[in-house]
């Protein structure tokens, strides 16, 4: 059974940094596209960033480009999201998700970790 466990959330002042991590188990991590989504209060869950299994290709939404970096370690079955220059609008529950490369849906999700950016 695939399990994704996020960590690293918390409360930070605007302009600060946090590093989210997601540890995966129960499957073939090195063949998965990994992604981060977030859900702000009153909003739907939305895509933030993804990284292909090889780590060679990444995607980021425009609002976090230049501030967030996604990376993965296939030896440790982890994916990380380094978040710098955080803004209050980054406040959300952040979710780790996984799918096989080329898949259209993300069948595996973590439980989420809260990120709160105070102004």
Characterization of this structure:
The chain is mainly beta and 119 residues long. Helix content is 0%, strand content 53%. It is built from no helices and eleven strands. It has strands at 3-7, 10-13, 18-25, 32-39, 46-51, 58-60, 68-73, 78-83, 92-100, 108-109, 113-118. The strands form two sheets. Strands 2, 4, 5, 6, 9, 10 and 11 form a seven-stranded mixed beta sheet that branches. Strand 5 (46-51) and strand 6 (58-60) form a beta hairpin. The protein is globular. The mean pLDDT is 97.
Largest sheet: 7 strands, mixed
Total strand segments:
11
The number of helical segments is: 0
The parts where pLDDT drops under 50 for at least 5 residues are none
Strand content: over 45%
Q: Share of helix among residues?
A: under 10%
Structural class: mainly beta
Oligomer: single chain
Question: What is the chain-wise order of helices and strands?
Answer: EEEEEEEEEEE
Radius of gyration: 13 Å
> How would you sum up the global shape?
globular
The whole-number mean of residue pLDDT values reads: 97
